[in-house]
Design brief:
The chain is built from three helices and four strands. It is of the alpha/beta class and 76 residues long. The chain has a two-stranded parallel sheet with strand order 1-2. The protein has a two-stranded parallel sheet with strand order 3-4.
């Protein structure tokens, strides 16, 4: 489901480039704000989602994921 959600975000940014901007850094957030666009941040909910795999974490980073929560509501 995570990869599909990443694809959806990419499709939405491509479809609405004047409204959305992918944000990978703090500078990207500032640029989006200055341009009047919505900054799109991608994150993974719950550290369990990578199954203790640093390779998976690196792959998510390469796909634009920039934050991960430690837990998710269904996993407490």
């Amino acid at each position: 489901a995570t990869l599909e959600q990443i694809d959806i975000v990419a499709e939405l940014i491509a479809r609405y480039p004047t409204q959305l901007r992918r944000a990978l850094t703090a500078d990207d957030l500032e640029k989006a704000r200055a341009e009047g666009r919505i900054a799109s941040l991608m994150g993974a909910e719950g550290g369990h989602s990578i199954n203790n795999s640093l390779g998976t974490l690196r792959a998510l980073y390469d796909l634009g994921v920039r934050y991960m929560t430690l837990t998710h509501n269904d996993n407490i």
